[in-house]
Design goal:
3 helices
Length: 55
């Protein structure tokens, strides 16, 4: 996915979540972006999400 599309998708998702009173941390946003950019695999992403959830 092109960088511009990733950034636009991230902004739209953040705005949508904000309407519901939900906000992602900086760590969560970096993790999502790394996955969308292909820097980490889906498997690595899910593992890290689970680790964050269990903190």
């Amino acid at each position: 996915m092109p960088k511009r599309s990733i950034e636009e998708s991230m902004r739209r998702a953040q705005a949508s979540n904000a309407l519901s009173g939900k906000y992602a941390t900086e760590e969560q946003r970096k993790l999502i972006k790394a996955n969308l950019e292909g820097k980490i695999t889906d498997e690595e992403f899910l593992k890290k999400v689970l680790e964050l959830a269990l903190k």
